[in-house]
């Protein structure tokens, strides 16, 4: 079951997140008519732990997913950033994972265990995810350490756009695609333990992710 969930996340969720990036398309009347609101977006992400990286992204390098935009909430919302590699791909990217947000400033809101960090080096790619964090590091049965937490610090109407500022945090981990026999047997011998697997025996690694963002959403999508 865990394998199926992981494969679903990699093969279904990530393409869905990429396809949802067409969230903002109309222009701010205070800007030239051909200005894409996405060009106004910015994000700063700090990754610490096994990997220590900084992402400073603007414009189209800020990834915004949005499946539904109402007067009071955002559904299927995710925000992240990437560092392009100059060849149409990226060196590193992060994303909070899809979540539902109330359009209220000042309250920390909780998402699901879908935050991620992906790094590329040539043909090699390493992914850190909140799902893997749950398997190897989570000590709370309610998954409180594996979820994304996001606080909107500002919700402001700006002409035809809704300006959102906020900050987020989440944990993510890397786990090998093929667990060793020692890793599997340790999990079996400690059935019911939190976390399920011993990260040292299994070769897992973890990171902490924290960031802040400013994005603009076109209110023509709002209903």
How does this structure look, described?
Residues 1-33 have low confidence and may be disordered. This protein has helices at residues 2-19, 130-136, 181-189, 199-202, and strands at residues 42-49, 53-58, 62-65, 68-69, 73-84, 90-95, 99-102, 108-110, 116-121, 124-129, 149-158, 161-174, 205-218. The chain is globular. The chain has one domain (2-221). With 223 residues, the chain is α+β, with helices and mostly antiparallel strands. The strands form two sheets. Strands 3, 4, 5, 6, 7, 9 and 10 form a seven-stranded antiparallel sheet that branches. Strands 2-1-13-12-11-8 form a six-stranded antiparallel sheet.
Beta-strand content: 35-45%
Biggest sheet architecture? 7 strands, antiparallel
Radius of gyration from CA coordinates: 18 Å
Distance between the termini: 38 Å
H/E element string? HEEEEEEEEEEHEEHHE
Helix fraction bin: 10-25%
> In total, how many beta strands?
13
How would you sum up the global shape? globular
- Helix tally equals 4
**pLDDT < 50 runs, ≥5 residues:** 1-33
Main structural class: alpha+beta
Overall pLDDT, averaged?
Answer: 86
Structurally, how many domains make up the residues? 1
């Amino acid at each position: 079951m865990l394998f199926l969930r992981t494969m679903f996340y990699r093969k279904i969720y990530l393409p869905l997140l990429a396809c949802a990036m067409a969230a903002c398309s109309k222009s701010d009347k205070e800007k030239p008519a051909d200005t894409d609101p996405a060009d106004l977006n910015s994000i700063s992400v700090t990754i610490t732990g096994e990997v220590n990286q900084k992402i400073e992204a603007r414009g189209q390098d800020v990834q915004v997913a949005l499946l539904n935009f109402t007067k009071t909430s955002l559904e299927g919302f995710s925000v992240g950033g990437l560092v392009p590699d100059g060849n149409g791909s990226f060196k590193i990217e992060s994303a909070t994972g899809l979540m539902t947000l109330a359009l209220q400033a000042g309250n920390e809101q909780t998402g699901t265990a879908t935050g991620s960090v992906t790094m590329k080096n040539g043909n090699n790619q390493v992914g850190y995810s909140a799902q893997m964090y749950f398997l190897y590091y989570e000590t709370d049965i309610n998954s409180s350490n594996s979820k994304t937490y996001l606080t909107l610090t500002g919700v402001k109407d700006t002409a035809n756009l809704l300006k959102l500022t906020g900050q987020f945090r989440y944990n993510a981990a890397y786990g090998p695609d093929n667990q060793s026999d020692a890793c599997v047997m340790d999990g079996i011998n400690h059935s019911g333990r939190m976390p399920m697997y011993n990260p040292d025996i299994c070769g897992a690694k973890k990171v902490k992710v924290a960031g802040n963002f400013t994005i603009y959403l076109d209110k023509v999508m709002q209903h």
